[in-house]
């Protein structure tokens, strides 16, 4: 029986991407945003997803039809404000922003409705991934604090992929998994250096603030993780990148899939790393097959480190 993960995606995006197909524009319309991309990877791994989201305006009407799919159930709060979106042109191989709109913030009643929707689903299914909004104004940080605390206190495994004030709020709920990038740690002032020692210290500080397993992605460099009291480095197989954007989101989704299935944190980390590696060789964000993930997971190397994040031995 497939496990189910609840994903909070406060206000998904409507995305339009223009590709080149034999010299002609090839237009793709999809739902997007961190939570959407994570949900997509989870379903690729055979995990069922309940996506809790706010939808409003014309863009929300379109998203309501685009989001549900095989293994993905949408539970939505109707919003007075519209969802944001963007148009990207990739015909020359790079992403060029043609237009983008942030969408509007949720009001107090909509915050409460989204909290209730996510809490109910999380208690029902036992695993929740709280993803961030695309814009700081969409929902207040305290929503993440309330959800993390109330879900975790009632037996739901909570994972967060957040930064800034939202991460600070979520830590009060003592989430089982915290995923963050090294750039976010630097921007938030949680790390004083991008070197391994500075990031290891930041991970231990996050642990002291309430985090369980902590994973720090480092772009092309090996990710670092604090598992129990051990610092490890995650080495991925060499692959030629096609689309590096979204690798961290796919990594988070893979780890949550593993934890939801009962894997150890190290085994879940291996699955997550494989998902992140697969993401960079594909042009669709949060995509990939379970077979490809399994093949890559066998090639992920987890290396023990000293307390300051340098390789042991």
Automatic annotation (TrEMBL):
Origin superkingdom: Bacteria
A Pfam short name: PfkB
Domain Carbohydrate kinase PfkB: from-to ranges: 24-288
The protein, known as: 1-phosphofructokinase
GO molecular function: ATP binding; kinase activity; phosphotransferase activity, alcohol group as acceptor
Stated family: Belongs to the carbohydrate kinase PfkB family.
Gene giving rise to this polypeptide: fruK_1
Alphabetically ordered keywords of this record: ATP-binding, Kinase, Nucleotide-binding, Transferase
Organism: Pseudonocardia hydrocarbonoxydans
A GO BP entry: carbohydrate metabolic process
